[in-house]
Write a structure and sequence with these properties.
This protein is of the alpha/beta class. The longest helix has 34 residues, at 308-341. It is globular and about 90 Å long.
C-alpha cells in the first residue's frame, strides 16, 4: 500500500501581487513562482529571462583539457571520444564528434556495449583503442570513476581528458585533465549539468566562446541530452533547453531540422511543435532504446548523419528497438512484482533489492523506476548471468542511493551514479549479503516518504484556458521545475467509467455547481476506493488539446485522497505494518498500537462477506468500518490473518470470502499470535 504525502506550497498573496507588477507578468504566474520559493524580483527575472552562460574556464582543469586537445588537432593525433550508451552519453559523443570534425581533427568514437562491457571505460576497450592508433581519449558522460583504466591507458602511452558530471570519488584519475563540476575545487555557481552540458562547456572553451554560437549550432542535441538525463531544469540547463526547443521547433516548422532529428520526429509523429515533455517522452526514450536493446551506435549515427534517407532507415530501426524495449520492460516488471509479492521478506524491506536470471540489462533501470512508483521505496533491480550480476537502482528524495552503495562498496565490484539513480555490479553469490547490508544501512536513516508537491489550491471555477497562458512562461518543465500540480479540494465525487479499452478512467467531480471531468491513468474500476458522494481532494495537471479544430482544456489526475484524511497517521500506520512484517519478535509498544483481537478480525471479515468481496484498499476498508487512519495497521494485519486461515482470498488486488465451512480458530494463525501474544 503506497501513499504519497501531499505537500501544499505556501505563498504570500501580497508578495505575489507586488512581484507580478514589478516583473510585468500575470498575477497567477507570479503566484506560482512565489509558491516555488522565488520571492524577489531578481530571482524571478533571472529564472524567466536569464540568457547568460558562465565562463567555461571556471570549470577545473579546463585550460589543461583545451591545450591537450588543441595540440592533438594541430599535430594530427588520433582522438577517440569515449562515450556512454544512454541518451546523455550518445548526445555528448555526437556533440564533441561533430565539433571536432568541423575543426579538422582526426577523430572517431567508442561506445561500450551495455551487455558485454557495461558502463564506462574498461581495460579491453583501452587495448582496442591502442590497436586503432588512438593517442588521446576524451571521455564524455563517464571517466570520473575510471581510475585503474585511465592509469592503464597512461601506461600504454595514451593520454586521457575526462569530461564528466557524476559524483567524484576519493581519488581522481591520473588524466591530463579532469573536467567535472562536482570536484571540490570547482568555482562554478552552477554545477548541475548533464554529461552533454559539460561537453558543451568543453567545446565552448576550445572555441574560445561563451557558448552562444555553439548553442545556436548544436542546441537541439544539447537540449535532448539534458532533458533525457533528468537534471534540474534551472540555471544554465534551463537556458540550454529553452534555446534548444526553439531550434527544434523552428526546424520542424521550416523543414531544416538536423536530418536525424527530423527523421526521428517524423516516425514519432511529433508534428510541427514540441516541448520539453515531448523531448523527454517522445524522442529521448527512442535514443535510449538503441543502447538498451541493440547498440547505441545506431542512435549516434542518427544524430551525426547528414543523409535524409539514411536517417529515416536509422530512425525506423530505433523506433523498432523502442517497441521491443517496452515489451521487454513490461515482462520484467511483471516478473519483478511477482517476485516481490511472493517474498514478504523482500516486499516489506526498507530497500527493495530484486534479482532475476538474465533480465535484460538495458531496461532494469526503467523497471526500478516502475517499482519505486508502485511500492514507494528505493529499489535496485539486479540481472544475474554467468559473468556476474549487474544492477540499476532508483531512489526517493531523502535517501541518497550513491551514499548507500558507498557504504556497501566492499560487497560490490563497481558502482557509480547520483543521489537518486545509480548502477552497480557484484558477484552472484553476494546478492543476499548486499541486500542485507543496504537494508541495515537504511535502518540507520529516516524512512523516505513519497511526496506529491501541490503548487497551489485552485477553485474549480477558475479552470479555463486562460490558465494555459499563465503556465507557458514557466516552461520548459522538467526536474526541479515540474509542470505545476493543482489541488482541487473538497470536491464531490460524482462518477467514474473506464475508457480507452481499459487504459484509463474518466472521473467526474463537482463543487459549488461547477462540474469537471478528468482523466486518470492509474486505477481500475474493480479496485476503486471512492463512491458517489464522497468528499475528495484531487491533484491535477492542466493542459490543452485540440478537438474538432478547437482548443480545449484537458485535466489529468495525479492523485486522489479523502478530504478528511489524516495523511501523517496513514503513512505511520503503513510503516508500522511493514515493521510488523519485518520483525520476528514484535515489541509490546507496537502490539499496543496494533490492538487487534477476535472481534476486530470478525468485523473485517463481515465487511468483506457483506459486500461480496472488498474491492478497494485497506484505507477504504477502515473508513467503511468508521475507523481512523491509525487503525489501518490493524486492518492490514486482519486481512493477512483471514488469508492465512483460508477464509478470505486476494484476487487482482481485491478480497473475497471463500467457501470454507465451519468455525475458524484464530489461534491457528501464526500472524494473529504474533500480533497478540
Amino acid at each position: 500500500m503506497n501513499r504519497k504525502k501531499w505537500v501544499v506550497s505556501g505563498c504570500d498573496k501580497d508578495v505575489a501581487a507586488s512581484l507580478a507588477e514589478a516583473c510585468d507578468i500575470e498575477p497567477f504566474t507570479a503566484f506560482l513562482l512565489c509558491s516555488r520559493g522565488m520571492t524577489n524580483e531578481f530571482e524571478i527575472e533571472s529564472f524567466l529571462y536569464d540568457t547568460d552562460l558562465c565562463d567555461p574556464f571556471s570549470l577545473p582543469d579546463m585550460e589543461l583539457a583545451v591545450q591537450r586537445v588543441c595540440d592533438a588537432i594541430e599535430n594530427g593525433e588520433k582522438i577517440t571520444i569515449f562515450g556512454d550508451f544512454d541518451a546523455d552519453g550518445v548526445t555528448s559523443t555526437a556533440l564533441v564528434y561533430l565539433y571536432l570534425t568541423s575543426k579538422g581533427a582526426v577523430v572517431d568514437y567508442y561506445i561500450p556495449d551495455r551487455a558485454t562491457e557495461g558502463y564506462g571505460m574498461n581495460v579491453n576497450a583501452v587495448d582496442v583503442l591502442k590497436g586503432r592508433g588512438t593517442q588521446l581519449i576524451i571521455t564524455v558522460d563517464n571517466g570520473i570513476s575510471a581510475v585503474e583504466e585511465i592509469s592503464y591507458a597512461k601506461s600504454l602511452g595514451i593520454d586521457v581528458v575526462v569530461t564528466d558530471h557524476h559524483k567524484v570519488g576519493d581519488v581522481l584519475p591520473e588524466a591530463v585533465a579532469v573536467v567535472d563540476p562536482h570536484r571540490e575545487d570547482c568555482d562554478c555557481d552552477f554545477t548541475e549539468w548533464a554529461g552533454v552540458g559539460v561537453a558543451f562547456k568543453f567545446i565552448s572553451a576550445i572555441e574560445g566562446d561563451d557558448g552562444e554560437y555553439l548553442l545556436e549550432k548544436y542546441g537541439d542535441i544539447i537540449a535532448l541530452g539534458t532533458v533525457a538525463d533528468i537534471v534540474p531544469l534551472k540555471g544554465e540547463n534551463r537556458i540550454i533547453v529553452k534555446r534548444g526547443i526553439e531550434i527544434v521547433n523552428y526546424g520542424l516548422q521550416n523543414g531544416d531540422l538536423r536530418p536525424g532529428l527530423k527523421a526521428l520526429s517524423e516516425v514519432s509523429a511529433v508534428g510541427t511543435a514540441i516541448d520539453s515533455g515531448g523531448l523527454a517522452f517522445r524522442l529521448a526514450p527512442k535514443i535510449n532504446a538503441a543502447g538498451r536493446m541493440y547498440t547505441a551506435e545506431k542512435a549516434l549515427q542518427l544524430l551525426i548523419s547528414n543523409d535524409e534517407a539514411e536517417s529515416m532507415v536509422l530512425a525506423e530501426e530505433i523506433v523498432k528497438a523502442n517497441s521491443e524495449r517496452q515489451s521487454t520492460e513490461a515482462k520484467i516488471t511483471e516478473s519483478a512484482i511477482e517476485y516481490i509479492e511472493s517474498n514478504p521478506c523482500i516486499k516489506y524491506s526498507r530497500i527493495l533489492v530484486v534479482d532475476g536470471e538474465d533480465w535484460h540489462q538495458g531496461v532494469i533501470g526503467i523497471v526500478a523506476s516502475r517499482l519505486v512508483e508502485k511500492y514507494g521505496k528505493p529499489c535496485i533491480v539486479i540481472s544475474k548471468s554467468e559473468a556476474g550480476a549487474k544492477g540499476s537502482g532508483r531512489s526517493l528524495d531523502g535517501f541518497d542511493l550513491y551514499d548507500a552503495l558507498a557504504e556497501c562498496s566492499d560487497v560490490l565490484r563497481q558502482f557509480g551514479g547520483h543521489t537518486l539513480a545509480a548502477g552497480l555490479s557484484l558477484d552472484n553469490d553476494r546478492i543476499d549479503e548486499f541486500r542485507k547490508r543496504i537494508n541495515d544501512y537504511a535502518a540507520t536513516r529516516a524512512t523516505p516518504v513519497p511526496v506529491l508537491k501541490i503548487d497551489c489550491k485552485l477553485n474549480p471555477l477558475y479552470l479555463d484556458l486562460s490558465i494555459i497562458s499563465s503556465l507557458s512562461l514557466l516552461e520548459p518543465f522538467g526536474a526541479e521545475n515540474p509542470q505545476p500540480v493543482f489541488g482541487l479540494f473538497n470536491m464531490r465525487f460524482e462518477s467514474a467509467h473506464s475508457a480507452g479499452n481499459g487504459k484509463y478512467m474518466i472521473l467526474e467531480f463537482s463543487r459549488n455547481m461547477q462540474t469537471i471531468k478528468a482523466i486518470w491513468f492509474s486505477p481500475k474500476l474493480n479496485n476503486f476506493d471512492f463512491k458517489i458522494g464522497d468528499k475528495v481532494d484531487v491533484a491535477v495537471k492542466i493542459g490543452s488539446s485540440e478537438y474538432q479544430g478547437k482548443e480545449r482544456l484537458s485535466i489529468q489526475i495525479k492523485d486522489i485522497r479523502f478530504s478528511d484524511c489524516d495523511e501523517d497517521a496513514l503513512i505511520s500506520a503503513v510503516n508500522d505494518y511493514e515493521e510488523f512484517c519485518r520483525s520476528e519478535e514484535v515489541s509490546r509498544e507496537l502490539k499496543e498500537k496494533i490492538n487487534i483481537d477476535r472481534d476486530f478480525c470478525g468485523s473485517v471479515y463481515r465487511a468483506i462477506r457483506g459486500s461480496a468481496g472488498w474491492k478497494g484498499s485497506a484505507h477504504a476498508l477502515a473508513r467503511s468500518l468508521k475507523l481512523s487512519e491509525s487503525r489501518i495497521t490493524a486492518c492490514l494485519i486482519a486481512l493477512d490473518v483471514l488469508q492465512e486461515l483460508g477464509i478470505v482470498e486476494c484476487r487482482d488486488e481485491a478480497y473475497y470470502p471463500t467457501l470454507k465451512e465451519g468455525k475458524t480458530n484464530l489461534e491457528n494463525s501464526r500472524i494473529f499470535k504474533k500480533a497478540t501474544k
